[in-house]
Design brief:
- The protein folds into two domains: 64 residues, Orthogonal Bundle (DNA polymerase, domain 1); 294 residues, Alpha-Beta Barrel (TIM Barrel), CATH 3.20.20.70.
- The protein is 32% helix and 15% strand.
- It contains eleven helices and eleven strands.
- The strands form two sheets. Strands 1-2-3-4-7-8-9-10-11 form a nine-stranded mixed beta sheet, covered by helices on one side.
- The longest helix has 17 residues.
- The structure holds S-adenosyl-L-homocysteine and iron/sulfur cluster (SF4).
- The site of S-adenosyl-L-homocysteine has 17 residues, from strand 8 and strand 10.
């Protein structure tokens, strides 16, 4: 259901996104202010106009300048002449038996990324992508089999939340504000790509997601998952301040080198030292250690014991992820009793060890199953 009075204003000109027609979605406050000054908005007014625009764009979901009724008509027309608010299009939406929704989104250059909405009893988590593909190639990850196509812009990262809100009908409407009936309560950067290899854009996007005039989701409800890009971890803690998850997955360098090859650059010891220094680390803001359960590879009792010894002293929880297979994947999911035995050792050592229930498996929306059609499309074009 549309939000605001969407009677088109004929004085406003809507144009498609394109060169020389910058998108306002994803601009930092300073960048938007500069952009407005660039089209002749007096410097004294630019801050207030930015704030008004943010409210329309991120709080009300306006898709067109014409609905921004507290801005003068002439100004709305001027905005539409210079800027766009276009969002990526949902090309495919799949809804799983368990309510999980997977969106395939087409970007303006034709590439595609995926975002996944996972509803739970008291919350709803949106899993978003940071890159088209990934430069890393973790051997158990489907995205890793796809080459990096490109980084997403900050706007393309924020827009994933906005498009999901469109689909979930989550913008405020006549029945009142969105608070209290939010469907997206949490955001996780666990889709395609390594967020810390697209650091600036991820940071700017998360600032918009956290801002009270932006999407307004608290930093404690945002989790960034990294494979372990050590030099950017501390900076992320300081500048983004969201929760951190680390794709740990192994307890010896030999095995982690195989599973998460970035380990050859920054090994387990280096990674753990960096995590110990993560700003804000406390019992209420623990680091999540993600640990994919691969049959016969990393799932023994000895692994569980090594794991708890390694992370000693770090406020942490261990998220055990049953491996999600994909076509041609070289691993198998650990048996259920093995996962439980592993979880018990970790638990007895004093760490919460929730097992992540695979969600949306029937639509290949579970962790590590995401892979866009971009590459396949290019391959078939070459043929
Ligand atoms: N690149 C980042 C974030 C995206 S991956 C990272 O690696 O952390 C999100 C999580 O899904 C990571 O913990 C990743 O290791 C895990 N994952 C990848 N492939 C998986 C698979 N096939 N089954 C289960 N988890 C997987
Ligand atoms: Fe990239 Fe993360 Fe997949 Fe590794 S697990 S290939 S870092 S998306």
């Amino acid at each position: 259901m549309p939000v605001t009075p969407l009677v088109p204003d004929v004085t406003a000109v809507s144009r498609p996104d394109g060169p020389g027609h910058p998108n306002l979605i994803g601009l930092t406050r300073d960048a938007m202010r500069d952009a407005l000054i660039g089209i002749g908005v007096p410097e004294k007014q630019a801050r207030m106009r930015t704030s008004q625009l943010w409210q329309w764009i991120y709080q009300k979901g306006a898709q067109d300048f014409s609905v921004m009724t507290n801005l003068a008509k002439a100004f709305r027309g001027q905005l539409a002449e210079h800027f766009t608010l276009a969002r990526p299009a949902i090309t495919t939406k799949q809804v799983s038996m368990d309510g999980t929704r997977k969106y395939l989104l087409r970007l303006f250059d034709g590439h595609e990324v995926e975002a996944v909405y996972i509803p739970d009893e008291n919350r709803g988590t949106l899993c978003i992508s940071s890159q088209v593909g990934c430069t890393l190639n973790c051997s158990f990850c489907h995205t890793g089999t796809q080459n990096l196509v490109r980084n997403l812009s900050a706007g393309e990262i924020v827009a994933q939340v906005m498009v999901a809100r469109d689909d979930l009908d989550e913008w405020p409407d006549d029945s009142g504000p969105v608070e209290g009936r939010r469907r997206i309560t949490n955001v996780v950067l666990m889709g395609m790509g390594e967020p810390l290899y697209n650091y600036e854009n991820v940071r700017d996007a998360m600032h918009i997601v956290m801002d009270n005039e932006g999407i307004s989701i608290s930093r404690r409800r945002i989790t960034l998952s990294t494979s372990g890009v050590v030099p950017q971890i501390e900076r992320a803690g300081q500048e983004i301040g969201c929760l951190l998850a680390v794709s740990f997955h192994a307890t010896t360098d030999a095995v982690r080198d195989q599973l998460v090859p970035i380990n050859k650059k920054w090994n387990i010891e280096t990674l753990l030292n960096t995590l110990r220094a993560y700003p804000r680390l406390s019992n209420s803001e623990r680091i999540t250690f993600e640990y994919v359960m691969l049959k016969g590879i990393n799932d023994s009792d000895a692994d569980a014991r090594r794991l708890v010894a390694l992370i000693k002293g770090i406020p942490a929880k261990i998220n055990l992820i049953p491996f999600n297979p994909w076509p041609g994947s070289p691993y198998q999911r650990s048996d259920w009793d093995r996962i439980e035995a592993f979880a018990e050792i970790v638990n007895n050592a004093g760490y919460a060890s929730p097992v992540r229930t695979p969600r949306g498996e029937d639509i290949m929306a579970a962790c590590g199953q995401l892979k866009s059609a971009s590459q396949k499309a290019r391959a078939s074009a070459r043929k």
